[in-house]
From TrEMBL:
DNA-binding region of this protein: 128-236
SUPFAM superfamilies (alphabetical): C-terminal effector domain of the bipartite response regulators (SSF46894), CheY-like (SSF52172)
InterPro entries: CheY-like_superfamily, OmpR/PhoB-type_DNA-bd, Sig_transdc_resp-reg_C-effctor, Sig_transdc_resp-reg_receiver, WalR-like, WH-like_DNA-bd_sf
Protein name: DNA-binding response regulator
UniProt modified residues of type 4-aspartylphosphate: 56
CDD domains with a match to the protein in the record: trans_reg_C
Pfam families hit by this protein: Response_reg, Trans_reg_C
Annotated GO biological process: regulation of DNA-templated transcription
């Protein structure tokens, strides 16, 4: 799970990261990236994707509310946003929610409450609670068997592919975000790589093998498209049933 945190107080930064990593461990691998000004995060959001944004209101350069307005106006990928601020007036909370925040927590936060709210936002953002089986059109992912199946016709034999752990993590992330661009760093981290050290061609090699193995193309309901300078997008054919 990738979480971006907009917070300019070093003490709060450390507390947030420690709380999220400790309390969410077991749910997923949690990676937190901290930003102390809004412009810095905005630049990264133009090319990167996250599972959740935690925004403080009062930060330099571009504050949390301004960044939230930009996100909801210009970004097609609707990433969940939790506002975390010392501003606790009723009007402030109402304004943030009206601007598109998914939740609002007043500082000082309570760790267990924050954990529960983050879990809910991430689950809702990926289509609900974690499921063993997930279907898009004629494709079905089975997390227990780490496999993906394709059914060409109702009476046809099911085509099943058992995937490696890395392959399944990549496929699952893309299938959780149909029609959305998933950044290269996000995909590499999902596959268990340290993006700072891993060559970019590693991801391209994985995607190439997945395309060939699964024969992902529009004729089979879903196709995998490279988005220049950003990452990959799983396109779902219009006639594919969800």
């Amino acid at each position: 799970m990738r979480i971006a945190i907009l917070e300019d107080d070093p003490v709060q930064q450390e507390l947030l990261v420690r709380t999220l990593v400790q309390h969410l461990v077991g749910m997923d691998t949690v990676r937190c990236q901290v930003f102390d000004n809004g412009k810095q995060l905005q630049r990264l959001l133009r090319r990167e994707s996250f599972d959740l944004l935690i925004l403080d209101w009062s930060v330099p350069s571009l504050d949390g509310m301004e960044l939230l307005h930009w996100l909801r106006t210009w970004k097609s990928n609707r990433v969940p946003v939790l506002m975390l601020s010392s501003r606790g007036a009723e009007q402030d909370v109402a304004d943030a929610l009206a601007a598109g925040a998914d939740d609002y927590v007043i500082k000082p936060f309570r760790p267990l409450e924050l954990r529960a709210r983050v879990r809910r936002l991430v689950q809702n953002g990926s289509g609900g609670p974690v499921r063993t089986h997930q279907s898009i059109g004629r494709w079905t992912l089975d997390a227990g068997a780490r496999s993906i199946s394709y059914l060409a016709e109702p009476d046809a034999q099911t085509e099943t592919h058992v995937l490696t752990s890395r392959e399944f993590q990549l496929v699952q992330l893309l299938f959780n975000r149909p029609g959305q661009t998933v950044s290269r760093a996000h995909l590499l981290e999902a596959a268990g790589y340290e993006t700072e050290e891993e060559p970019s061609r590693t991801l391209d090699s994985h995607i190439y093998r997945l395309r060939r193995k699964l024969q992902l193309d529009a004729g089979r309901g879903v196709s995998l498209r490279a988005v220049y300078g950003q990452g990959y997008c799983l396109d779902v054919a219009k006639d594919a049933s969800a």
